[in-house]
């Protein structure tokens, strides 16, 4: 089946969907400038480096080391679909309000997806039903200024330190992925890459932190002290309606075999395009682990020669974690816990190993950005 739509048709669908997101606000139809050709760029290592003076003066926290990127900057810029909607037509939430779990009532159903963050003693939940209309929440968690971000088109929820600025929705897409911009330097940051492709901070990488994608029932059970983002966002939105479909139950755009809206950077018909995998991009090469396989096994070892990787499944939250280890085969799983080499049981999210940043992503989007990915079933 040819899943690629014509670019005019794709843009019309996207504009209609986002217009639904905006509840009739003046989002326009977007302006397509001829970029965004699917499969137009052969994967290549990015050789650009960030400007040291710009980093030194940046209000945005920047990683010491650039994250892996498998395309050149110019190739990525040429692939951007610009002006799908005007900048900030999808408005970030800059003054979020929260309520205790006990005050939520039936506003959120047990199986509704939420994005959870814990930093220090703070635990917060951000309902997917709200973020699908805003995509970015500029918040503080554990005393730290952060941005909690979600891209509906790629199924990715990610957190970033934001320092002394806020992030907004640029209105552009790259490989179907949200392109954010920071309001201090107006640099463009594709969410999944977490690396700037245009602006004063181009080629610099953001500081990431994990965002847990789970259900409301699971999150409140694991974190009864959590607070929850309310619908008091300052914007008139129908938060009971998702313009892309539904995760409860899964329908529409979110279905594993449903069509993508925009051609990916690299296409692959070997897997369902929107199958969600646990994905990571360590320096020795990107990898993706089947969540179904991880659920079945409890732990999944990956032998990379010099170092192993261990994926561990948390049955309480239905999420996966990734670690580096010298011997993945020494670990096992039983009854929701990880059994270490010493025979002791450990919480899957708190292993005494080096944690590796990983997040859930739709396969077509991850494969587009990281075509050299090794997949582990």
Automatic annotation (TrEMBL):
It holds the Pfam family DUF3179. InterPro entries: DUF3179. PROSITE patterns: PROKAR_LIPOPROTEIN (PS51257). Residues 33-60 are annotated as: Disordered. It comes from the Archaea. This is DUF3179 domain-containing protein. It comes from Natrarchaeobius chitinivorans.
């Amino acid at each position: 089946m040819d899943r690629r739509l014509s670019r005019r048709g794709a843009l019309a669908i996207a504009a209609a969907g986002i217009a639904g997101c905006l509840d009739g606000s003046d989002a326009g139809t977007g302006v397509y400038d001829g970029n965004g050709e699917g499969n137009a760029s052969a994967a290549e290592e990015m050789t650009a480096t960030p400007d040291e003076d710009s980093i030194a003066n940046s209000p945005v926290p920047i990683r010491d080391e650039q994250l892996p990127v498998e395309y050149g900057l110019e190739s990525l810029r040429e692939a951007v679909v610009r002006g799908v909607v005007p900048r900030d037509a999808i408005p970030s939430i800059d003054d979020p309000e929260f309520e205790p779990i006990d005050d939520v009532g039936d506003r959120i159903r047990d199986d509704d997806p939420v994005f959870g963050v814990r930093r220090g003693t703070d635990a917060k939940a951000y309902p997917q039903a709200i973020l699908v209309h805003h995509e970015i929440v500029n918040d503080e968690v554990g005393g730290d200024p952060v941005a909690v971000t979600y891209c509906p088109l790629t199924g990715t929820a990610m957190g970033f330190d934001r320092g002394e600025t806020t992030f907004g929705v640029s209105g552009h897409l790259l490989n179907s992925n949200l392109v954010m911009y920071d309001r201090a330097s107006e640099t463009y940051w594709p969410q999944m890459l977490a690396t700037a492709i245009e602006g004063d901070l181009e080629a610099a990488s953001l500081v990431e932190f994990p965002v847990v994608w789970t259900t409301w029932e699971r999150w409140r059970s694991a974190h009864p002290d959590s607070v929850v983002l309310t619908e008091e966002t300052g914007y008139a939105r129908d938060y009971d309606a998702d313009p892309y479909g539904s995760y409860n139950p899964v329908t529409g755009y979110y279905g594993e075999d449903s069509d993508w809206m925009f051609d990916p950077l690299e296409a692959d018909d070997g897997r369902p395009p929107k199958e969600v995998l646990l994905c990571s991009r360590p320096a020795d090469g990107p990898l993706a682990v089947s969540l179904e396989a991880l659920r079945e096994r409890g732990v999944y070892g990956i032998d990379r020669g010099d170092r192993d990787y261990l994926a561990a499944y948390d049955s309480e939250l239905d999420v996966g974690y990734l670690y580096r280890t010298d011997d993945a085969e020494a670990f096992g799983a039983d009854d929701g816990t990880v059994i270490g080499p010493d025979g002791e049981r450990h919480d899957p999210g708190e292993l005494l190993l080096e944690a590796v940043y990983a997040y859930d992503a739709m396969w077509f989007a991850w494969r587009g950005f990281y075509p050299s990915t090794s997949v582990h079933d």
